[in-house]
Amino acid sequence: MKKIYIVILSLTLFTATAQQDTQFSHYYFNQLFINPATAGSENVTRFQAIYRTQYAGYQSTFDDGGAPVSQIISANMPLKMIRSGVGLTFVNDKIGASIQRDLKLSYAYQIPVGGSQLALGVNGGLFTRGIDYGRLRPRDDNDPLLGTGVVSQSSLDLGAGAYFFNPTYSIGLSVNHLNEPKFGLSSNGATNVLQRSAYLSGSMLFGVSYMIDVSPMFLLNANLSNMSISTFSAGAIATYDNTYYLGASYRVGDAVTALLGANILNGNLRIGYAIDVIVGGVQAKSATTHEVMLSYALSPPRAGKKSIIRTPRYRY
Question: Which of 2.40.160.40, 3.40.50.10790, 1.20.120.450, 3.40.50.1400 would CATH assign to domain 2-298?
Answer without folding.
Answer: 2.40.160.40
